[in-house]
Amino acid sequence: MNDCSHSKPTVTLWVRAGVDGVRCGGCPVCQQLFMILLCKSDAGVLNFEVKTTNPYRPNFAFSSAGLRHVPALVHDDQQFDETDEIIEYLDNTFPQPDLTCNNVEALNTVRDLFSRFCFFVKAVDKGPANLESALAKLNAFLLKTKTKFLCGDQLTHLDCSILPKLHHIRLVVERFTNFQIPRTFSGVWKYLKTGYECDVFTRSCPCDEEILLHWSDRPDTPNLSSVEVKKYSSQSEILQMDSSNSDSKLVLPVPEKSESSQAKISTMEFLNDLEELTPLIPEALVEHYMNQAGMQDSDPFVKRAIALAAQKFISDILLDSMQKAKFKGLAQVSKKGSSKELRYTLTSEVLEPVLEEFGIEGRKSVFNL
């Protein structure tokens, strides 16, 4: 690191940890921000470090910064854990290099690509037709533009978003489904090859095993066998960055022994804790949907576990919706006595993009059309 590097601002990027709690996990949005910071760092405008945390059991440094979601960014006294806010802050604070993509056609071309993939891998779509159609649309665009990247010959925000997702699509559909990106889509394969030859992409990309483990752990996606999980976990290599080529560095925190031991909760301990918890979702409602799904189980622990899982899922959606509402400035001031408080209304404008991130297609009722 050269002497002038000490005068550059230092930014901390928190990303999802891998299976061992130390390596970088297979989160495409985390890699997207990693790539953006590498572009800024290579331009000499900032230094940055990358730290990992388990979002479900965050370490003390992450929690004490007031952060709740990954990826998250800390710079001086500024903290952000919403992706759009992070990108806006980086562009405003460190405008060079300019990663803006103003190509409306490119934006429209890839708009539905990742959601189509999520629908397919989660079996929401019965077959790969919609995903293949989205890939064909991207292929036609790339063949027409004849540029290295989506908006020209330089990386933009759009490439930092799409390249990691396209890499995930290639790996996951080949491993978990009978579908592959057609070899006839030469534009898509050339674009992927360009990404694999791009230093910013390769330095930020987690290993293939972490990506497969990431998707195997997600709800409604195909699972890996215990043998495969063990195999992929052992093959997963620690992601390192070449500090001789960049002022940025990757900090891999070693979990404390106490955190490691706490993570190993037995099934019996979980059931004991479950007995003391009272889910917000009524048991009768859980039974109703269990019956609709053809599940017959009178075990109260099973019903309570399902209720808690559903409660957690809904809470995550509501929290993300609140963050988007705050970012859009949709608060309404409500007077309560002599004090004022901000209130937010959950609207379809806020909810629909959040549901899409969770792989859910939001549909308006007939009376809302």
Textual characterization of the structure:
This is Chloride intracellular channel exl-1. The structure is a single chain. This protein has 369 residues and is of the alpha/beta class. It folds into three domains: 8-98, Glutaredoxin; 100-241, Up-down Bundle (Glutathione S-transferase Yfyf (Class Pi), Chain A, domain 2); 267-358, Histone, subunit A. It is 50% helix and 9% strand. It has 16 helices and seven strands. The protein has helices at residues 28-42, 60-64, 83-93, 104-110, 113-121, 129-145, 157-176, 186-196, 199-204, 208-216, 226-235, 257-263, 267-276, 283-292, 300-328, 348-357; strands at residues 10-16, 47-53, 72-75, 78-80, 249-250, 332-336, 339-343. Strands 4-3-1-2-5 form a five-stranded mixed β-sheet, covered by helices on one side. Helix 4 runs antiparallel to helix 6 (129-145) and helix 10 (208-216) runs antiparallel to helix 11. It starts with 9 loop residues before the first strand and ends in a 12-residue tail after the last helix.
